[in-house]
Amino acid sequence: MFSKIMIANRGEIAVRILRACRDLGVPAVVAFSEADRDTLAVRMADEAICIGPAESRKSYLNQPAVVSAALIAGCDAVHPGYGFLSEDAGFAEVCAAHDLHFIGPRADVLEKFGSKYAVRRMLAANGLPTVPGSTGILSDQRDALDQASAAGYPVLLKPSAGGGGRGMRLVRSPREMETSLPLARSEAQAAFGDDSVYFEKWIEESRHVEVQVLIDQHGNGIHLGERDCSVQRRHQKIIEETPSPAMSDDARERLRDLALRSVLAAGYESAGTLEFLLDGDGNFYFIEINCRIQVEHPITEMLTGIDLIAEQIRLASGEKLQLRQEQVQLRGHAIEFRINAEDPGDNFAPQTGTVEELQLPGGPGVRVDTHLYAGYEVPPYYDSLLAKLIVWGETREIALARSRRALAEFQVAGIKTNLPFHRGIIDNTAFLEGAVSTNLLDRVGPAAFVAGNA
Ligand code: ADP
Ligand code: ADP
Ligand code: MG
User: Fold this and answer.
1) What is the pLDDT, as a whole number, of residue 148?
2) Which domain CATH number covers 138?
3) pLDDT in tens, 13-37
4) In contact, 247 and 255? CB cutoff 8 Å
5) Per the count of CB atoms within 10 A, which of 111, 247, 290, 372 is most buried?
6) Residue range of the domain that includes 237
7) 82 CA distance to ligand 2 centroid (A)?
8) Tell me, what's the pLDDT at 452?
9) In this predicted structure, what is the pLDDT of residue 338?
10) What is the rounded (10 degree) CA torsion for 178, 183, 185, 191?
């Protein structure tokens, strides 16, 4: 096991990683930007170290600053959380060169799984169904037009280095391709430092279902079931649940097995998630792998009783997986609600401000992962996630009833949040029936789901 871990992230995930370190008995150091001096992880930490100004590029993405802080603090491992440096193979390599263990896949594995397009091709070769699409990275306008007419419109342009739902563009005709391709490329370059773009056929009515895996450095792997993340706005997840309410037990078993077998064969290691789209006919198609811990990991923890971050840390230290597949028990149903600093009354515009009062829900089956406290000032520089409400019940019905109660108890004063959206959707028929597709909110307009607007 490691002797000291640097947490190179912020917000709720920094708090979550700190808790895992405490449970493992490993000292941790929180790296923070000047804007995060007063954040909860820093308050809770035994040791914290400033790595630069508010702007991510100069702090959380500043590799020399993170590495030198880790070395000065005497750490032998770095946990990157999600976002920021979490899937950066170059960073994993720099860590290794300084005798720091990157908590994630080793650098060469991360490199191999780094490009969405390359992984799609590699896993397709291993027998995983993928969404039909371009046969390579689009080289130019002519290539894009030729390939899209062969595949048939509409298509979705996707940045190969993309993530966080950003930079994708729906293209319905050759004319749209002419304007969209250059925009998609320059957006990809600006957001991800790489202008490689490919396309997939647009699947209008689909659900997002993903499989969590844990794989050690010795070739042993297990899956921890699937999560359904179909409630999305602009390709970003808002509510996740497990098991998926849209799959038969046979279908979920097939998907879990196929997902695990294909990444094991391809040489993946660490915690990871394979994301799929499920179409109206029950066919599933692989879309990408996230080589890191995910925002929605707690719902899997609720069903399995496994601390995913502690496992991820153990795997990075070279330990063998202690669990066999048949020892993994998936019990009950869990739902996560992402509470964001967004105003549902103003097209979900991001909000900043001071949390004047905070009343967190509790009781049976309820967990809240958050970095908020009364008096905390939400800075404008980072993403809008404030808290995750995670609810467990023996059945989906019980989980829904507890969710309704917990959402009513959850009070934040001083800053607008999307809680009114969650309180509305929890009574929406499509949601209750488990029938929300990934594009529904954008098609209908998410405001229609807000409590009081229905
Ligand atoms: P990111 O890397 O940004 O997470 P993904 O490839 O995982 O991007 O896609 C994010 C979301 O975009 C999916 O969950 C789904 O809602 C939508 N999406 C992605 N690919 C398609 C597709 N081919 N057809 C329809 N929707 C898609
Ligand atoms: P999850 O699948 O864990 O829900 P999200 O796609 O919601 O992941 O991303 C989690 C966080 O990481 C978000 O803050 C998102 O903006 C960020 N993120 C994910 N991938 C990238 C990337 N390639 N570049 C920058 N930020 C990313
Ligand atoms: Mg994704």
Assistant:
1) 96
2) 3.30.1490.20
3) 999 999 999 999 999 999 999 999 9
4) yes
5) 372
6) 207-449
7) 6
8) 77
9) 98
10) -170
How many structural domains does the chain have?
3
* Residues near ligand 2 (Cβ within 6 A): 82-83, 162-165, 192, 236-237, 290, 294-296, 383
The pLDDT of residue 35: 98
What confidence tens digit (pLDDT) does each residue in 77-93 have?
999 999 999 999 999 99
Helices and strands (H and E) in the chain: how many: 15, 22
Give the 3-state secondary structure of residue 413.
Answer: strand
Q: Is 46 exposed, middle or buried (0-12, 13-18, 19+ CB in 10 A)?
A: exposed
- Distance separating alpha carbons of residues 333 and 344, to the nearest angstrom: 27
Name the residue with the closest Cα to ligand 2, atom 24: 163
Looking at the structure, tell me whether residues 97 and 139 fall in a common domain.
no
pTM here is 0.97
- Check which CATH number belongs to the domain holding 12 and give it: 3.40.50.20
Mutate which of 12, 291, 295 for ligand 2 pocket (most atoms within 8 A of beta carbon): 295
CB count in 10 Å sphere of residue 357: 10
Substitution site in 9, 56, 60, 82 for ligand 2 pocket (most atoms within 8 Å of beta carbon): 82
pLDDT tens digits for range 283-302: 999 999 999 999 999 999 99
Closest by Cα among 85, 31, 33 to 54: 33
Other residues' Cβ atoms within 10 Å of the Cβ of residue 431: 20
